[in-house]
């Protein structure tokens, strides 16, 4: 059975997603929406969507699920509107701009019994799936430390979405979310968050060093920045060894397992396409099974990650808010 997808937005993330969607045999791009119908029409023609229009048009287009790829502060309103219309949603990360906004979306999905998932595509890559298997098998003992960095230099431009706080700009929501989500996935919700960093002239966060502490001594050391670049390394340290994700970890093609006293074992596990196909397959599997949330990216994980991100921004003195979208 073919799943009819709608995409809300026409930017770079939407284009990457649409390209990978075409690689999933039982997925179809049925409708594209934008605040400007002309942009939606151009995108639809480019990727072969059957229809296009405004976000309001999307809600009545008869799609099976909507992928929301607008700037972070617009996720909240669009997700709520789709859920109210009974349409399942895949919401780009960061899930919302605020923890309160995320809690409201999750509560709405729970009350309506509508599927909702954060689009943390990295969790569904073959290498991450194997990491879970290695950890579950006890091959590296108990995980105790996660180290990860994601930094990408971008010339400062206060007019760009990446730096505009009204559009959810800044390093933490755009890049830090990957490192925090990985740490949360392996170690769970931390007990304490400590963040130091720098800001751009307009007050948006330029860089952040994030330390997650757990009462039992486990920890995560995370770094993100828009002011410089880094290799994108990630390592999970356990009591019996470690797992190193092939850099950059957020789009990793494999991993190296180091068991204490043994030789390193490298496994090449490349993704299909750019890697977004795997989260599409997860959404469709969940919908076919009648699930309202993914067991790999459950609502509780999304809320834990949003709590950490908000703690980081608060400690950096950065304030963001949910935006308004006409739907």
Automatic annotation (TrEMBL):
Pfam families: GFO_IDH_MocA, GFO_IDH_MocA_C3. InterPro entries: Gfo/Idh/MocA-like_OxRdtase_N, Gfo/Idh/MocA_domain, GFO_IDH_MocA-like_dom, NAD(P)-bd_dom_sf. Keywords: Oxidoreductase. One of its GO terms (molecular function) is nucleotide binding. Residues 130-244 form the GFO/IDH/MocA-like oxidoreductase domain. Residues 4-118 form the Gfo/Idh/MocA-like oxidoreductase N-terminal domain. PANTHER family: OXIDOREDUCTASES, TRANS-1,2-DIHYDROBENZENE-1,2-DIOL DEHYDROGENASE. Belongs to the Gfo/Idh/MocA family. This is Putative dehydrogenase. It comes from Nocardioides cavernae.
């Amino acid at each position: 059975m073919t799943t009819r997808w709608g995409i809300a937005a026409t930017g770079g993330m939407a284009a990457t997603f649409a390209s990978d969607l075409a690689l999933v045999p039982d997925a179809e791009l049925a409708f594209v929406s934008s605040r400007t119908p002309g942009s939606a029409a151009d995108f639809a023609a480019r990727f072969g969507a059957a229809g296009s229009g405004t976000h309001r048009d999307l809600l009545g287009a008869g799609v099976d699920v909507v992928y929301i790829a607008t700037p972070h502060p617009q996720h909240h309103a669009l997700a709520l509107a789709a859920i109210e219309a009974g349409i399942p949603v895949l919401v780009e990360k960061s899930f919302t701009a605020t923890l309160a906004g995320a809690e409201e979306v999750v509560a709405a999905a729970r009350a309506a019994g509508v599927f909702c998932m954060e689009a943390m595509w990295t969790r569904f890559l073959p290498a991450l799936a194997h990491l879970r298997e290695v950890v579950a098998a006890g091959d590296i003992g108990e995980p105790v430390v996660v180290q990860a960095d994601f930094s990408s230099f971008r010339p400062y431009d206060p007019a760009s979405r990446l730096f505009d706080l009204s559009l959810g700009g800044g390093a933490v929501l755009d890049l830090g979310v990957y490192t925090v989500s990985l740490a949360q996935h392996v170690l769970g919700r931390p007990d304490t968050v400590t963040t130091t960093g720098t800001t751009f002239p307009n007050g948006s966060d330029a860089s952040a060093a994030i330390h997650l502490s757990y009462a039992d001594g486990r920890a995560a050391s995370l770094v993100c920045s828009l002011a410089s670049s880094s290799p994108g390394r990630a390592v999970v340290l356990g009591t019996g060894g470690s797992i190193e994700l092939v850099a950059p970890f957020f789009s990793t093609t494999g991993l190296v397992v180091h068991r204490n006293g043994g030789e390193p074992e490298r496994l090449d596990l490349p993704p299909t396409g750019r890697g977004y196909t795997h989260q599409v397959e997860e959404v469709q599997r969940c919908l076919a099974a009648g699930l309202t949330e993914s067991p790999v990216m459950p609502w509780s994980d999304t809320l834990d990650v949003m709590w950490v991100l908000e703690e980081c921004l608060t400690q950096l003195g950065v304030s963001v808010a949910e935006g308004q979208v006409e739907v």
